[in-house]
Amino acid sequence: MTFPSPALDTFALVTGASQGIGEAMARDLAKAGYNLIIVARREEVLRKLADELSAAHGVDVVVHPADLTKYDEVTALIDDIATRKITICVNSAGIASFGPFMDQDWDYEVNQFNLNATAVFRLTKAVLDQMVPRGEGAICNVGSAAGNIPIPNNATYVFTKAGVNAFTEALHYELKKQGIHVTLLAPGPVREAEVPEAEQSIVDKVVPDFLWTTYESCAHETLEAMINNKRRVVPGPLSKAMDFAGSYGPRAILAPLVGKFYSQMG
């Protein structure tokens, strides 16, 4: 059971590739020699990234602009990748909302569920339809340390991420003997290496810099975990602390405390 090597006729699929973890993963995969299919809503941003990565690393980068909150656009992506040989899949696209569930915009909450959960579910099945018969492939689904506990004022997000966490870890065990690497990335807060003071959120201001994980370091650690077929990767000290607390701390105490903090982000 080996991690797929780059080849002229194979591709790594990365969703949410226009920014954050998805972009950082796309950069690392291109640097390692993998051809890419990069997916996000902003076509202009994707094309700029594709041109940069192709020029720097000599890889083929296919741009597939899509809004993965839309069922039909996920279907179109599945039809596209069915014509290509996908050996790696990184499901990174995701959104979140904060504040009381009943006060949220319902359309946004439905789109959040469709993107964070349904699209991940469908795309995972689509790439496994290729990978399992070949006996080779690697998948990373981006869940969250927040998916470990019920967090008031973050209900839809934790609903989706708890599902992604459990789904991905279940597949890790199911597919181990079939040659497929399945890794859950369960980060806590991740950000750019430097955030201008005017753009800092409440989380940026209250959490010391040394506790943060950058997108770049998160991507490096995640790719290494995928290569070694680790079940779960939790990058950085803040993420590890959240993961430990969520897994082993008393929920009756933790949930209201974290929920109060999240209410300030609404």
Automatic annotation (TrEMBL):
Residues 10-193 form the Ketoreductase domain. Keywords: Oxidoreductase. Pfam families: adh_short. It is an enzyme of class 1 (oxidoreductase). It comes from the Bacteria. SUPFAM superfamilies: NAD(P)-binding Rossmann-fold domains. Its EC number is 1.1.1.-. Signal peptide: none annotated. Belongs to the short-chain dehydrogenases/reductases (SDR) family. This is Mycolate reductase. It comes from Corynebacterium breve.
